[in-house]
């Protein structure tokens, strides 16, 4: 299996940060018309909104034959690794807006002690990605001789 790399879609990041950017614009407009001191919180809120946008866009998921690695962070980087044979199940959720834009949230449920659920937010919906993930999980379980008991 080749290595797959995917990220949250920029539209998802914009949808998540739009309320903060809207509040920043309203506070800045208030500062323009009422008192110039209101402009400073507006600028701070705008900077926070753009930080969140770039933070979401910087998240990276790397799927190979044995692991799924998640890296996130702009200034401080955190990399989590999840062995594929530990994944028990996955759940795909899509809101109406996500269905229209072709995005999904995928939650992986695992037996890992530190990370028993991993949610990949705002990734492109590709049925072949779901199939490849399922095949990689089955192959990893077979290679590690993991038996599932019910």
Automatic annotation (TrEMBL):
- Key word Transmembrane helix present: yes
Q: Where is the YdbS-like PH domain?
A: 59-112
- Enumerate the transmembrane spans: 20-51
UniProt keyword list: Membrane, Transmembrane, Transmembrane helix
Cite the InterPro entries for this sequence: YdbS-like_PH (IPR005182)
Name the UniProt record assigns to this protein: Membrane-flanked domain DUF304
Please report the organism this UniProt entry assigns to the protein. Mucilaginibacter paludis DSM 18603
Supply the source organism's classification: Bacteria, Pseudomonadati, Bacteroidota, Sphingobacteriia, Sphingobacteriales
């Amino acid at each position: 299996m080749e290595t797959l790399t995917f990220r949250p879609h920029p539209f998802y990041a914009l949808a998540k940060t739009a309320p903060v950017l809207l509040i920043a614009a309203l506070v800045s407009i208030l500062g323009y018309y009422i008192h110039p001191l209101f402009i400073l919180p507006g600028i701070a809120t705008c900077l926070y909104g753009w930080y969140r946008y770039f933070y979401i866009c910087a998240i990276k998921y790397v799927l190979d034959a044995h692991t799924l690695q998640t890296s996130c962070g702009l200034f401080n980087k955190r990399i989590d690794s999840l062995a594929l044979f530990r994944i028990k199940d996955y759940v795909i959720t899509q809101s109406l807006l996500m269905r229209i834009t072709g995005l999904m949230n995928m939650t992986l449920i695992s037996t890992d002690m530190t990370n028993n659920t991993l949610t990949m937010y705002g990734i492109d919906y590709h049925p072949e990605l779901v199939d490849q993930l399922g095949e990689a999980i089955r192959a990893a379980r077979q290679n590690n001789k993991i038996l599932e008991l019910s």
